[in-house]
Amino acid sequence: VSMDRIDSHELEGAANPGVVVCAASQGKVVSGRTPKGVENKFCRFADGSLVDVSSLFYYAVKNAEKKATVK
Question: Which of 2, 12, 49, 51 is the most core-located residue (most Cβ within 10 A)?
Fold first, then answer.
C-alpha cells in the first residue's frame, strides 16, 4: 500500500483518508458492526482479504516515509 497513486488534493476534506487509500488501491470499502453497535470500515481487496481503513492509511503513510528516506 502506498501513497504514490494519491494526489494530496484527494485527501483534502476527506472524511476518512483510509477510504481514499482503499479506492486508490482498487479495493472496496465495506462496513461492519460490533455487537455493541460500533461501526468499523474495512477495505476488501480482490483476493477477499480485509484491512481496517485506518490501518491501511497508517501503513500507506509509513511506506511513503520509508521511500522518501531511501531516495
Answer: 51
The pLDDT tens digits for 38-60 are 999 999 999 999 999 999 999 99
Which position has the grid cell 511506506?
A: 63
Helix (H) or strand (E) holding 2: none
Q: What is the DSSP letter of 3?
A: S
CA distance 68 to 48: 30
